[in-house]
Amino acid sequence: YMAHNKLNFTDMKLNLKDTFNIELPADKNLTNTRRQVLDACYSFVTPKKPKKPSLIHFSDELAKEIGLEDYTLSKEFLEVFSGTTTSPNTNPFAMCYGGHQFGNWAGQLGDGRAINLFEIEHNDKHWALQLKGAGETPYSRTADGLAVLRSSIREHLCSEAMYYLRVPTTRSLALMLSGDEVLRDVLYNGNPDYEKGAIVTRAAPSFIRFGNFQILASRKDFKNLKLLADYTIKHFYPEITITGKEKYLEFYQEVVNRTLKMVIEWQRVGFVHGVMNTDNMSILGLTIDYGPYGWLEDFNPDWTPNTTDSQNRRYRFGNQPDIALWNLVQLGNALYPLIGDIPAMEKILEDYNTLFDQQYHQMMKNKLGLEENYDNILHDDLQAVLKLTETDMTIFYRNLSSVLKTDFAENALEKISNAFYKPGEIKEKIKDNWIKWFNLYIERLGREYDLDAIRKEKMNLVNPKFVLRNYMAQLAIDAADKEDYSVINELYSMLKNPYDEQPHNEKWFAKRPDWARHKVGCSMLSCSS
């Protein structure tokens, strides 16, 4: 993209509506030095000026939602969203928060490489915009606050892909090259190398995390804990109108509800976050921090995309609902000083499992195209057969919609056969188990009222045809390293309509190729970004 638009970004009359850095206490120390930040929710910080920024890609629909569609190719857009210049009348900042990392309290963490630029209101929607990879902050610890191209492409594409999949998520407005070289040890094996630096502009109503509350509670800073809770409720949970301790209890309940909904959607599409630390949990129930994420290729509930997690697999696909609950318990501990009612809080957490079972049950009914005739036998048997041989989750569920009520189990099995990575294994006992399950499934379909065509349409609205598999993102990264951004454009365009057939994109509706099975970036990933 070349900056050729002559419109002046600063004349755009942005409807700036900063709230976080106006209504909440700031760090009184204005130096950008690594330190413990006390009695504050954030620190003012200026982005690092990149050497030679260039715009690689932007989300056209998000730009329109924010009111920036006329300015995406302007010089000012490039400068503001690369960190080259700061918009007039704005005060960029980095948030202070703590968190549990892999189950252990890590103390202060904070925005180590995210800098919040400003907040905008447009068409009755509120947006906070922040740069990821724009330099160090007081929370950077031993890191440089920068980001590299490979991780930035993954975050940019995945944020938008998740949005179009209807999964609650933060968004990505723009992807920039910084022109700087950034030193990273990709494999954590003591062989660091220079990579292209990049900056992503992230967008969300707010980037507040569980950890923002945890750090204040851990320091017994109850005054600011209450201020932060009141701020969050006022701006992002305005439906809560009661006062007193019940207000914070209802707030806790709503965060639990939103978090639960988010995780159900992850399980629906086969998304694995990879780093469900409490500092990576949004207080709004949005997917946040796209690091070593991945989609299930073969259906394996024990799979984690994170190399750091490869031994204990704490953040594996099948464990995500339980980890969400564990994280909500930690948030409850942080909010307890405001609520002070252990039985009421325990009731909310106990209800989580009941609500999860109900919502998961409904989600699975939708995936299988069943209105009424879904039960645990059908579910448990399916989970078992999916694991008998490597079976691509996305292709299996998508092709399942082609099974008819009048099908025999044999031809139903044939309709999903391209989901198998090793078709030669579909014989004897494995085949018998599949036939048994399809007989059960077809019998259930026969009791349903919907016509096959109507059921297929419904199933195709919940079972995506296209997801951002890791090997696809890696192909975009490899091309971008050679200054070819066509794969980014192609994938972005395709991922905007993940439930559509898109015959021209059929090549992407495919199992992970063999070459990608063990290639760096195509299976598991490190946190090195």
Topology:
Layout: H1 20-23, E1 42-44, E2 54-58, H2 60-66, H3 75-80, E3 93-95, E4 98-101, E5 104-108, E6 114-122, E7 125-132, E8 147-148, H4 149-164, E9 171-184, E10 193-204, H5 210-218, H6 222-236, H7 245-269, E11 271-272, E12 294-295, H8 320-339, H9 342-368, H10 376-386, H11 393-400, H12 409-415, H13 428-446, H14 452-459, H15 470-481, H16 486-495
Antiparallel strand pairs: 1-3, 2-9, 4-5, 6-7, 7-10, 8-10, 9-10, 11-12
Helix pairs in contact: 4-15, 4-16, 5-6, 5-8, 7-8, 7-9, 8-9, 10-13, 12-13, 15-16
What can you see in these coordinates?
By secondary structure, the protein is of the alpha+beta class. The protein has helices at 20-23, 60-66, 75-80, 149-164, 210-218, 222-236, 245-269, 320-339, 342-368, 376-386, 393-400, 409-415, 428-446, 452-459, 470-481, 486-495; strands spanning 42-44, 54-58, 93-95, 98-101, 104-108, 114-122, 125-132, 147-148, 171-184, 193-204, 271-272, 294-295. The longest helix has 27 residues, at 342-368. It starts with 19 loop residues before the first helix and ends in a 34-residue tail after the last helix. The model is unreliable at 1-8 (pLDDT under 50).
